[in-house]
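Appendix C. Worked example: Glucose-1-phosphate adenylyltransferase subunit GlgD
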Amino acid sequence: MVKNKTCAILNLTADNRYIYPLTYNRPIAALPFASRYRIIDFSLSSLSYADVNSVALFIGESGRSIYDHVRSGESWDFDSKIAGGIFTFSQQKWKAAHHLENDYEDYYFNHRLFLERSEADYVFVSGSKILANIDIRSMRSHHIESGKDVTIVYKNILASRVGKDDPNERILEFDDHKRLVKLMQNSEKPAVDTVSASMNMYFVSVEFLIDLIDEALANHLFLELDDLIQTKLLDYSVNAYEYTGYAANINSVESYFEANMDMLNHQSFMALFHTSQPVLTKTKNGIPTYYHARSYVRNAIIATGVTIYGEVVDSLLNRRVVVEENAIVRNSVILQGAQIGEGARIEYAILDKNVIVEPGISIMGKPDDIKVIAKNERIATSIK
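Step 2, the predicted output written as structure tokens:
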């Protein structure tokens, strides 16, 4: 039997309203990132490197975009796990609402079944909107050595960067002995420049989590497991694990745009991708990108299969994007299959998949007013 065998539960149920229309038909975890990846790739990669056998994805709604990307988990080597792999449980939001009407059902049935069948000693529990490259092996060792009930991951960040719109964001307050003494909402944070922000990632024993589930069920407390652990955190001994790498909290259009733009900064890109754990993703073979002799590209991340006749500056282009002659793309994120017509101009914008911008049309946002165009839209009138 593998010593300290670990499983994982990822809750893809985060409130995505503040990222509409990009999240109309996909959870935050399925959002494209840095012209090649999806946000869920970072969690799955970390789990793969930590030799985690079984991963459960609890998805808020249909999960079609997650199924399409993850499939059997082959890209992260989960398809080869013996008595393991990736297990998906969709429509969590519907189940939560339905359960309130039918409280004879066990809300935690699938959670408990997964934990028991995993035959694991420990479980990593996480939300889905924190983008980071976590060393779960180190976290596991840190937890076991501490002897505490729960290990929580936190990062010291500027107080101004804590998500102001999400009521579930938590700031941690420690005493002089690094013991957790308080969890605060953004509105309660102290008047300091830097705070310890929870990354909504936890490491506990499977036995502890099952006991916590049984207690919650007895008290009619029905929450996703990351929220459940957070709610009960101060009732148990807590070990704090500091993450010092690059991290972004994808909880708004602005934070999503900013995280992508951060990747144009060499230091941020290296901090996220060039670690001992390269980020894995679904392989998609494609033709090379074509740069016309008259094209101009500066400080950009360009995926495969892109065709560029015009100008691209300080931007990220996903696969199969076309930028026609005399078109200009600046300070923008252009997702897969978008077409920028001849003479069009795009600035401070996010264009979702398969958007078509007609020739001569302008989409002109500002740093504090990012223009977002929904999937499959055809833009024939300029937007300012």
